[in-house]
Structure to design on (766 residues):
């Protein structure tokens, strides 16, 4: 069965997913135009689904393949050498999608999952707010009941893909008189609904990979609630677990400007490989990169053997961010004073990657939050006292508080 | 083969762990420190005759178990966790060199006796700055002159295998422990669980072993990397468990100290470094058994990561225990010293990274 699946996956990939150098998605979108990239990704996702390789572990009645994590791992192994043009679906499938599989109603699953898998609808995730980052449970976006429906008001930030998403999974406060974790609900929001405004957010690299999203009296229909009312934090924990696992196990592209092989070749081209310090740093980068890949592989093997990674997904996330930072430092040493000023595209790509490196230690939960999770849930250390845990939300101070 | 352990490997780990707890707890290392003995002969007898650890990777035809590197690394991880003092590492490196050389007389004369624990043999290698030995004369008149230091169990070895440069290039020579002109000075080892010696040869009679010495030494160096990585992984896990356990029960400022991020985050980083190093160790063990061509790089990666991570973890273990962690009676210093030593033995981080850089074509 598994061998059969492997052979089928291998043959399909070889025929349909020609290997290509991974581009920087943002740069690619800027040069080719975003519409062209989305059209390509939608077409490829549809093909993938038609061939039986989308939603491998999802139930058949919702468009999935109804297979096990064994086939999922085989697929990961076989597809590792390809850069599948499905990037715009990554967030939707791994986070809101997996969360709906776990917590959604039958009606929600029938309505949304098949179109996610077939590449017809793109999803985003709306958690962070300007006043609620690491402490996301202090979010202020509100959803107020109006008959069977809710009315949504507020602002979300760092939303990847909001500009081309059809739906989003959003956290909003539904009861401000309860302590912060107990008055939150998760909803499905139609990103094309009246009152939704998406603005690109320009980051340190000069690119705009994220958005700010504003909700102005947006009506959420009955049936938009994911899980139970005021139990949104539980749903968020489920989604964040899927996020950490997805990020932790996705591995890094070999063609990244900060990958070992790229920097080794760059160093050779710049005549830096005779420098013992650079040689040693490159060797250490190889060792560290390899370990991050191997740990992701180990987690996948454990999952296959029935041992779920749980909070150890945070180890993978933290390790990946640390590696990015280390690689950035190695790249800086390889470039020397050419980091300060350059006039080639190759050096510009490395420079952008160095500037971008700190972002991965913030996105998807900061490294500090990952360390809390590892300390508390892997090592069993005492929880942070959480002085605000019992106070009603409407009596808390949240966000950035300047002196009056 | 997978990175996760097989049922047999889990069983082997359990039996070695139980052996360490029963026969070689840290209190017995303290007795060795007091007595000045390099290791407990009774424990060594059981490790070899009963558990078969010295012969794990020796083929069955030479009295060993014919098991792979993976099984060996599993056993060494448990021995490392308990800081078990023994001549095992020296014997493993010597056996590896003999196997790779293919000198039949040496194989038949040494391997069954190493496996049985009846002969302590060591490979007289150190870091690249560890001295030099030259060979002169021929046949029965072959003699060695020079110095190597520090050599694992050099003072206790019944037989030493000494690499030396002769007229025909480098070869490995067999020297009897009681040979004329052989001076063995036991050094003060920072790590209480290792016995290390300076070996001085002055016209010492020796027999050249047939075979490719460079290949044999390279194989021994790769095995040394795997072995030190495995021991370091076990010891690092012991530090992590000891320190997170203490952070759960030690209270200050009204809370268990593990609640403070200054403590929690350091332990989280320790857990991360351990997990990464352990994954690399498993990969090296797997490569050793299944993809010998990948083994040198994989073993080097595991050693580079774990030797440094363990040394860091050991000093953090002292720090996070506070004052009690710096006392003689606490076990933290035993790991700290072991970590310092593991990091530099047989070539430290710089030398390992240079070797890795060469292998990676940098």
């Amino acid at each position: 069965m598994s061998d059969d699946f492997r052979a089928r996956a291998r043959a399909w990939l070889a025929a349909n997913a020609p290997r290509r150098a991974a581009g920087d998605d943002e740069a690619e979108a800027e040069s080719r135009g975003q519409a062209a990239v989305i059209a390509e990704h939608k077409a490829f996702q549809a093909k993938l689904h038609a061939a039986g390789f989308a939603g491998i572990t999802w139930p058949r009645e919702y468009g999935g393949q109804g297979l096990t994590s064994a086939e999922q791992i085989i697929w990961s192994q076989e597809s590792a050498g390809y850069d599948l043009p499905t990037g715009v679906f990554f967030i939707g499938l791994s986070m809101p999608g997996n969360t709906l599989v776990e917590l959604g109603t039958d009606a929600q699953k029938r309505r949304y999952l098949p179109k996610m898998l077939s590449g017809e609808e793109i999803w985003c995730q709306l958690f962070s707010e300007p006043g609620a980052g690491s402490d996301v449970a202090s979010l202020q976006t509100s959803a107020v009941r109006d008959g069977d429906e809710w009315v949504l008001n507020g602002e979300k930030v760092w939303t990847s893909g909001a500009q081309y998403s059809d739906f989003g999974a959003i956290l909003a406060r539904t009861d401000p008189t309860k302590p912060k974790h107990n008055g939150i609900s998760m909803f499905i929001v139609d990103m094309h609904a009246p009152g939704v405004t998406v603005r690109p957010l320009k980051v340190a690299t000069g690119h705009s990979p994220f958005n700010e999203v504003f909700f102005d009296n947006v009506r959420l229909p009955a049936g938009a609630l994911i899980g139970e009312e005021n139990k949104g934090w539980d749903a968020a924990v489920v989604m964040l677990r899927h996020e950490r696992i997805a990020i932790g196990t996705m591995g890094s592209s070999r063609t990244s400007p900060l990958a070992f092989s790229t920097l080794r070749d760059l160093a050779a081209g710049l005549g830096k490989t005779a420098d013992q310090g650079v040689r040693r740093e490159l060797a250490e980068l190889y060792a560290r990169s390899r370990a991050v890949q191997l740990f992701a592989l180990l987690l996948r093997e454990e999952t296959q053997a029935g041992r779920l990674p749980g909070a150890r997904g945070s180890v993978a996330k933290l390790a990946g961010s640390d590696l990015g930072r280390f690689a950035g430092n190695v790249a800086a040493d390889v470039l020397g004073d050419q980091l300060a000023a350059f006039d080639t595209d190759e050096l510009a790509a490395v420079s952008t990657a160095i500037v971008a490196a700190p972002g991965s230690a913030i996105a998807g939960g900061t490294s500090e939050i990952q360390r809390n999770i590892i300390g508390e849930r892997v090592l069993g250390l005492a929880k942070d006292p959480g002085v605000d845990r019992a106070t009603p939300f409407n009596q808390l101070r949240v966000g950035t508080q300047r002196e009056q | 083969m997978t990175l996760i352990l097989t049922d047999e490997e889990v069983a082997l780990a359990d039996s070695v762990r139980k052996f360490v707890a029963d026969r070689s707890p840290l209190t017995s290392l303290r007795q060795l420190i007091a007595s000045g003995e390099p290791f407990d002969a009774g424990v060594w007898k059981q490790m070899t005759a009963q558990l078969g650890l010295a012969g794990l990777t020796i083929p069955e035809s030479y009295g060993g178990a014919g098991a792979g590197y993976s099984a060996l690394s599993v056993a060494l991880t448990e021995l490392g966790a308990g800081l078990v003092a023994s001549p095992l590492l020296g014997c493993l490196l010597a056996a590896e060199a003999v196997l790779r050389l293919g000198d039949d007389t040496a194989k038949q004369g040494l391997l069954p006796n190493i496996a049985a624990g009846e002969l302590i043999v060591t490979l007289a290698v150190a870091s690249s700055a560890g001295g030099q030995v030259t060979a002169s004369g021929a046949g029965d008149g072959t003699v060695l002159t020079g110095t190597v230091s520090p050599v694992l169990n050099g003072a206790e070895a019944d037989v030493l295998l000494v690499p030396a440069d002769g007229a025909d290039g480098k070869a490995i020579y067999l020297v009897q422990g009681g040979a004329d002109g052989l001076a063995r000075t036991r050094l003060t080892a920072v790590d209480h669980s290792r016995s290390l010696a300076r070996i001085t040869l002055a016209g010492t009679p020796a027999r050249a072993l047939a075979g490719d010495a460079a290949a044999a030494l390279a194989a021994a160096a790769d095995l040394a990397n795997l072995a030190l990585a495995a021991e370091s992984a076990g010891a690092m896990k012991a530090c992590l468990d000891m320190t997170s356990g203490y952070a759960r029960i030690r209270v200050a400022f009204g809370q268990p100290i593990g609640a403070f991020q200054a403590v929690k985050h350091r332990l989280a980083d320790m857990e991360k470094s351990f997990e990464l190093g352990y994954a690399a160790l498993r990969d090296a063990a797997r490569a050793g058994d299944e993809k010998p061509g990948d083994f040198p790089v994989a073993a080097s990666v595991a050693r580079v990561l774990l030797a440094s991570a363990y040394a860091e973890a050991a000093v953090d273990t002292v720090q996070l225990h506070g004052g009690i962690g710096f006392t003689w009676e606490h076990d933290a210093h035993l790991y700290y010293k072991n970590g310092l030593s593991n990091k530099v033995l047989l070539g430290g981080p710089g030398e390992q990274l240079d070797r890795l850089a060469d292998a990676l074509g940098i």
User: Anything to note?
Assistant: The mean pLDDT of chain A is 91. Chain A is about 45% helix and 15% strand. The first helix of chain A runs from residue 2 to 16. The CA atoms of residues 175 and 282 of chain A lie 53 Å apart.
